[in-house]
Design brief:
- The structure is a single chain.
- The protein is an alpha/beta fold.
- It has a single domain, classed as Alpha-Beta Barrel (TIM Barrel), CATH 3.20.20.70.
- It contains 12 helices and 10 strands.
- The protein has an 8-stranded parallel barrel with strand order 1-2-3-4-5-8-9-10, surrounded by 8 helices. Strands 6-7 form a two-stranded antiparallel ribbon.
- α10 links the parallel β9 and β10.
- The longest helix is centred in the last third of the chain and has 20 residues.
- 51% of the residues are buried.
Length: 280
């Protein structure tokens, strides 16, 4: 199924919640070893806890890469396990390059057999550093999320710079929409090309949604970074789809005790209810 359609179907069936898997080994709950095997146990436990409510999970590759080859083994096993549990998998690696190197990244993560459904990508090198990812998306029913307006405090140092009569992130949004509109799903009319827009910039998000009507939006910044349900509303289209909202620490580390899975399950359900009520 086209990624835009599968993402829409998952959010309708469950919720627009995306759970970020940021398995910092130093923060793993008591009783779990602070190594690769402990990380895998933790990730699988979180997946089991959230799979009935969340539409997708977003493994943050940095925490897996930190443990070297063992961490990357855990990353792929985590992605495969999430797929087995009927979750969409968004790999948060922010990859980008040009030429054959970019083609290799695209093939590595978005090939036909990969358990990864989508990958975050950086636009800094322009669209010749994104097109190889789009080719894999079209070929294998995968997706990408292009960084447009990120949630971090210093994002404006580059993303808010004036570019003619608009800001850089506004110009980028128009570029993303121009490409996205050519790759839409037949059911949702949403593209396999998405955008990352932080919940910490709700006013910008409202305007960016108008610039990107065919673009699914991945919204980080809910919870620990300060964003709330009211802040994410601008990312949705009128029928209540078109966006997924990510929370990481507030869910996966909701408890450091023996009830960590139950706490994650409750935090996910509470977040889904919070967003549902805001959308009503």
């Amino acid at each position: 199924m086209h990624f835009g359609d599968s993402l829409t179907a998952a959010t309708k069936e469950k919720s627009p919640v995306c759970v970020g898997l940021d398995p910092n080994v130093s923060k793993l709950p008591e009783g779990i070893s602070q190594d690769a095997e402990g990380m895998l146990t933790f990730c699988k436990g979180i997946i089991d806890a959230v799979k009935d409510t969340a539409a997708c999970v977003k493994p943050q590759m940095a925490y897996f890469e930190e443990l070297g080859w063992e961490g990357m083994r855990v990353f792929w096993e985590t992605c495969s396990y999430a797929k087995e549990q009927n979750l969409l998998v968004i790999a948060d690696g922010k990859r980008n390059d040009i030429g054959s190197t970019c083609e290799a990244y695209a093939q590595a993560y978005l090939n036909e057999l990969s358990p990864i459904d989508a990958l975050t990508v950086s636009p800094y090198l322009g669209f010749d550093g994104i097109n190889p990812f789009i080719e894999q998306c079209d070929k294998n029913n995968k997706g990408i999320f292009v960084l447009v307006k990120t949630s971090n405090p210093s994002s404006g140092e580059l993303q808010d710079l004036p570019c003619g009569d608009e800001a850089v992130h506004e110009h980028l949004a128009q570029l993303v929409e121009a490409h996205a509109a050519q790759h839409c799903g037949p059911e949702s009319h949403l593209s396999c090309i998405g955008a990352v827009v932080g919940a910490t910039y709700p006013e910008e998000m409202k305007y960016l949604r108008t610039l990107m009507p065919h673009v699914p939006i991945l919204i980080p910044g809910y919870g620990a970074q300060g964003g709330g349900a009211a802040d994410v509303l601008g990312g949705f289209i009128p029928d209540g789809t078109g966006a997924i909202v990510n929370s990481s620490r507030d869910i996966i580390f909701a408890s450091s005790g023996p009830d960590w899975k139950e706490a994650a399950e409750k935090a996910t359900a509470d977040m889904a209810e919070d967003i549902k009520n805001a959308l009503m």
